[in-house]
Structure formats: structure tokens, C-alpha cells
Amino acid sequence: MKRITIITLSILLFCATKSHANVRAKQRPNVLFIAIDDLNDWTDTLKGNPQARTPHMDKLARKGMLFANAHCAAPACGPSRSAIMSGIRPSTSGNYVNKNSFTRNPILNHSVLLPEFFQQNGYYVAGVGKLFHGGHFQREVKGRGFDDYFPSKTQDLPSFQGLKFAFKLPMNGWARQADWGPFLLGVTVDDHPDGITANWATKKLRDEELQEPFFLGAGIFTPHLPNYAPQEYFDRFPLEDIKLPEGFRENDLDDVPAAHAKMAHNPWLKKIRSMNQWKPAIQAYLACTSMVDDLIGRIVGALEDSKYADNTIIVLWSDHGFQLGEKGRWGKYSLWERATRVNLIWVAPGVTKPGTVTDKPANLLDIYPTLASLTGIKPPQGQLEGNDLSVLMKNPDAAWDDATVTTFGYKNYGIRSKRYRYIVYEDGTEELYDHTKDKWEWTNLAGDSDYTNIKSIMREEIPAHHEPMGAIEAFFESRKRK
């Protein structure tokens, strides 16, 4: 009889403990996690281009806190998203380029990924669109930690194939990968893969009884190339009104070390200019950005109209920037401002103060530890290398790191403080720019002895460990050399 009583008490104690844990879990805030691909600072919030129109992102920033000096961990989709989802620096994981596999990188593969972290702590985790790097690399990991993924854990969203275009592809006449142009009239944003993504996330928030707490990730592919959008978005930016980037200068690379050319580079700008297509290409980027903004308005609007609004953290981020001619480049893949500066907006009920802006250096690597802090969940021990941004949310004047670091390739680093950008390449060559006087980074001060101390201070931010390239990256590199 005594044994039965002890067993009964044990069961009751277990049930009570589990019930208490469930109550605690339900009280935790939900998370709406919005990712955007290749979006630079051409937004109303960051003011990188006065022609950009992104009122929905601007409205979201006014509801919470804008990190106006935020930068990517790496200026390429794969390593940037690996850093966000694992909380591990590229220099620690050895994940430097897009051709990467989580399962063949032992450091990343043995980490607790962000969706796993939430699932392990009682969250319902759902995702749609591009959250990890695309293709089969994304399919390797979107089954880890997700309860639900649209269209499934083994499928991707429909591609642009099957949609009707205004002209024969490629519309720009030379490159399908870097193409741009409008769909035929009658093809709407709802037919676009990103429209499908936004509508699925919207339906989840509006029409379904979501299990709480939840983590809902929505990954928008645009304005990643190819820049296709319905005609209505091109009409918002008449071609005759398009201006070339203010930050472009013909002789901009005259004082830049040769090491920059060893980074991933493409000849697209030269081709675009030779075919007199620069303004049409910029028009397409602005059109796609405007479409993305409308889709973000849909998703956030659905949350605001839902019962979850008062208990849901929103974090919106773009994985890296994009150069549209600056420094002679059309793409990312550099350590300059246009390629590293990102959109980072937080709305945390009861924590962020509406309309707050900070120019203290932040990094996408900070997302994971910040979400752990805001949800009150203990982070994986010894894994996360970013900072907890909620410190600044609670007190924008709090003591903070002087600089943040972007990595691109082995031992290539860009260090950004409030005032300076310092770049050091593997061969030891350098660049230094003073953003109070030179926001377009036209004048390299690295050779000026007056800045020796500044360089010395910023060099202290460089990681002490530089992991060699991962196995799959080394394989692709060896094939290139052959």
C-alpha cells in the first residue's frame, strides 16, 4: 500500500511539474521571423536610395526599434544564414561560401539550430520560403526543428517556371541568372513564389488556431536575382525618373588593394553598362523591393489583426546587402558597406519603445542570443557568439561593443564601428574609411599615418581563431583549381 502511494504521488508530482512547464511555455512570447534575401539599404528606414519606397517596413520600424548600423556575419546567402541559424561565426565554423552543407560541416551539424532550439523548448515551429540557403542545402536542414514547413520538408516552393512573362527570357538579352523584367498583365503578386509565401504565413496567422507559443518563419526570396515582378511594381518607378547610384565613382578602385579582386566577383556591371541597361536593372531592383514591402505589410497586418499581436516578437532582417554599381560591382560578395549593411528591425512587446533608432554596431549573429533572452530560454551552452540586443532595447544608452565584424573568406574581415570601416585581407593589405566624412567609401585612409592608432584598435576585433574551409568548400575549391 505504501509503494502504491509513493508511485501515485510521483505521478501526480510529474503531472504537476509538466503542467507548470506548459503554463510557463504558453506565457512565453511568440516569434514572427521574417527573412529577406539580397535587400540592401535602399529602404525608407535606412535611406540608402531616396527613390526607394518601403512604407510597410518603415511603419514596422516606427512600432519598435531600428538597428541602423547592423551588418551581416558574411556577405553571401549561405554563410550568412548559417551564422544566423547557428549563432556561430563563419571564422569559427569554417563556412565561408555558398557551396556548403550543414551535414558535412561538423561544427554546424552538431549545433542546435534556431528552430530546433525553440522546438526543444515547447514551441510549435513552422516555416515557409527561404530561411536557410536554397536548393538541396535548404532541404537538408528545414526538417530539423520544424513541425510544419510549406510546401513540405522535402520540397521547395514553385519556381518562376510556368509564369507568363512580357518577353522571351532572358528579358535583359544576355543572362537568365541576372535577368529582370515584368510579368504579363494578369499575372499577380499572388502567383509569385513570394506571394505564395506571404499568403501561407498570413493564413496561418489569420485563419488557423496556432499552438502557442509559436515560432513562425517566413523567408522572402526577392529582391534576389532574377528581378521579376508584376508590371504594377515597375510602373511605380518610371524609367525616365531612375537615377544612377549616388555612391558610384568611375575611379573608385584606384586606392583599393588588389586583394579585393580575389573575392567572388562577376562581370555583370560591365555588361549591363555596355548594353545601356543600368537604369532598367535599377528599376527592376526598386520594383522588386516595393513588392517585398507590400508582402511584409500583408504578413505583419495579419499579425496585428490577430489575437497574437500583443504577445509576439517580430524580427525582420535581410541576409546581406547588394551593390548596384558601387565599387564596380553588381552583387554582394565584398566587405564594403553596400554589401554588409542590412535591415534589422525588432518589435518586442513590453521591451522595445516605438520609434527607437540606434546606430550602435549590431550584427545578424546577434539574432539568436537576443531571441533566447527575449523569450526567457537558456541558450545552448558555449555555442552562441553574438550579443544580446535586448540590452539596447531596454536602454539605448547602455555600454556596448565598439564594433562588429563581417567575414568573407578565410582571414578576410570587415570591421564596422559607429564611425569607421576597417577592412583587412588575408595578405595583410588594408582599407579604412571615415563614415562621418565619406559615407560612400571613396577615400582609403589605411596608408595615412594619422590613423595608425584607429587601425590598431579596430584590429583587436578580429577573431583569434580562423577555421580552415569546411570539407565541401575545399572540395569545390579544388575542382576550380583543376
Short description:
The protein has helices at residues 2-27, 55-63, 77-86, 90-93, 106-109, 114-120, 135-141, 193-207, 231-235, 268-274, 278-304, 337-340, 367-375, 390-394, 452-459, 471-481, and strands at 30-36, 65-67, 70-71, 124-129, 148-150, 180-182, 214-220, 227-229, 312-318, 323-324, 330-331, 344-347, 356-358, 362-363, 403-407, 413-417, 420-424, 430-434.
Average pLDDT taken over every residue: 91
Oligomer: single chain
The N- and C-terminal alpha carbons lie at a distance of 78 Å
Strand content: 15-25%
Structural class: alpha/beta
The level of helicity is 25-40%
Total strand count, please? Answer: 18
Instruction: Report Rg.
Output: 23 Å
Strand order of the largest sheet: 5-4-7-1-9-12-2-13
Note the main attributes of this structure:
16 helices; globular; alpha/beta; disordered N terminus; about 475 residues; single chain; 18 strands; four-stranded antiparallel beta sheet
Q: What does it look like?
A:
There is one protein chain. With 482 residues, the chain is an alpha/beta fold. It has helices spanning 2-27, 55-63, 77-86, 90-93, 106-109, 114-120, 135-141, 193-207, 231-235, 268-274, 278-304, 337-340, 367-375, 390-394, 452-459, 471-481, and strands at 30-36, 65-67, 70-71, 124-129, 148-150, 180-182, 214-220, 227-229, 312-318, 323-324, 330-331, 344-347, 356-358, 362-363, 403-407, 413-417, 420-424, 430-434. A hairpin with a 2-residue loop joins strand 16 (413-417) and strand 17 (420-424). The protein is globular. Mean pLDDT is 91; it is low at 1-24.
